[in-house]
Amino acid sequence: MKSITYAERINQLPPYLFAQIDAMKAEARAAGIDIIDLSIGDPDLPTPKPVIETLCKSASDPNTHRYPTYDGMRVFREAVASWYKRNKGVKLDPEKEVVALIGSKEGIAHIPFAFINPGDYVLVPDPAYPVYLNSTILAGGKPYILPLLPENGFKPDLTEIDPEVLRRTKLLFLNYPNNPTAALADEAFFKEVVDFAKEHNIIVCHDNPYSEIVYDGTRALSFLEVDGARDVGIEFNSLSKTCNMTGWRIGYALGNPDILAGLLKVKTNIDSGIFEAVQLAGIKALEIADAVAGENSAIYRERRDVLCRGLGLEPPLATFYVWAPVPEGYDSMSYTEMLLSKCGIVVTPGVGFGAHGEGFVRFALTEDVERIKVAVERISEGMLI
Ligand SMILES: *Cc1c(COP(=O)(O)O)cnc(C)c1O
Predict the structure, then answer these.
(1) 126-177 residue pLDDT tens
(2) Which intervals hold domain Aminotransferase class I/classII large (predicted)?
(3) What burial class does residue 240 get, using C-beta atoms within 10 Å of its C-beta: 0-12 exposed, 13-18 middle, 19+ buried?
(4) Pocket probe mutation, ligand 1, options 207, 212, 248, 348, max atoms within 8 Å of Cβ
């Protein structure tokens, strides 16, 4: 073989901006520097014991060892529907309005394959979780960037989209509470989204993995709570952040049955569902999710307060992220490099979430409060390590 060439769709993916940071991090570690890593969007807290125990017990039952069903076990889908009813007041038919996913990322990555023809547009927020943009590209769609600006509360301005683009738009991705900005959406905004989607015949995919990581009496809405949302869209959610289960790979898509049927059609041809023992553990997680999320949020809140008070930042009302403007004289990459080389602190440069993330860095509250205190001291004293 003369040479290996990647498919065009792979070449079109944006470069991996974190490679440089990863290399610097590895170098600093190798040099014995005490690194405080606030860059990881992954809970440091363990999965609750009852969930682990249910997995162990279920895994030793041979009934769980065969191929699972594509859309998820009926009992699991019922547990999801019942949690949404209890927690969000949203009534879902577990048969047609709930699909189990191998983590919500799996569904987000597959949904464009069900609806996008070459040349169709997908509305992609920026800054954002990179999967919205990359799955659009992999499916042969054209991303149309919706800037999330601080002056708009990090919500897109839907009135500013080129009508020519709107004519050829199939999908819109949204994510509130938002990663990386921690912004919330209110009912008025979701209503505007529903009207917009109806008018232009656009499928709304709302990604809601931080719905339970909330502070100071905040309640994060489900998109499906809003009148008409089910006519135009689906919501992705997951146990990853709510119950500290990122490694388990279990999530769900909910809402419009025709949209879900499209997603399921793709999935049926690519994967074979989630290990049933994991689904049974997922049912246990959903039973205790409200208590677990409450405890988690209390832990993150303490960390948030230490970081935000210490650095004079606005405390977020949801997610475990703090989206911080970089000081005068830096851009997001140079500030990230400075924090690493001078303070031994790793953050994520905003530009890694898209061009409109420039001017910010993201702190993840995924180290314990003592480590965050040390981070604050190092930053405020401009400490050289
Ligand atoms: C963590 C995260 C996900 C992925 O969740 P999984 O269910 O673990 O795949 C999806 N969207 C956003 C915005 C996230 O931050």
Answers:
(1) 999 999 999 999 999 999 999 999 999 999 999 999 999 999 999 999 999 9
(2) 34-379
(3) buried
(4) 207
